[in-house]
Amino acid sequence: MVMQYLIQRNDEYIDRLNDFEEKVEKLMDLLRVIEYNVNELQATVRTLRTTDAQDTQLKEEFNAKRQR
Fold it and tell me: Which one of 15, 44, 50, 64 counts the least CB within 10 Å of its CB?
């Protein structure tokens, strides 16, 4: 009787562990997507122009395109 109970509980714990592993894998997939997006954003930000003269020129070009 006790052995049957322990075997039954063991199966429950194995099922819970499998469920936990699936959830962790889904979480890891989401973290990989977030990491990729952050890396892409960082690469984009690094390529942005930072001087005031370049910023002014970009604004002028943008406004000129809008007025056409």
Answer: 50
Query: Rounded distance, CA 7 to CA 4, Å?
Result: 5
Q: Considering only residues 16 and 44, tell me which one the structure prediction assigns the higher pLDDT.
A: 16
- Report the distance separating Cα 11 and Cα 62, nearest Å: 65
Mean pLDDT of 52-61: 86
C-alpha distances in Å from residue 18, one per residue of 7, 46, 61 = 17, 42, 57
SS3 category, 2: helix
Residue 27, C-beta contacts closer than 8 angstroms, at least 6 positions apart:
none
Query: Closest by alpha carbon to 52, among 41, 60, 44?
Result: 60
Whole-angstrom distance, CA of residue 53 vs CA of residue 61: 12
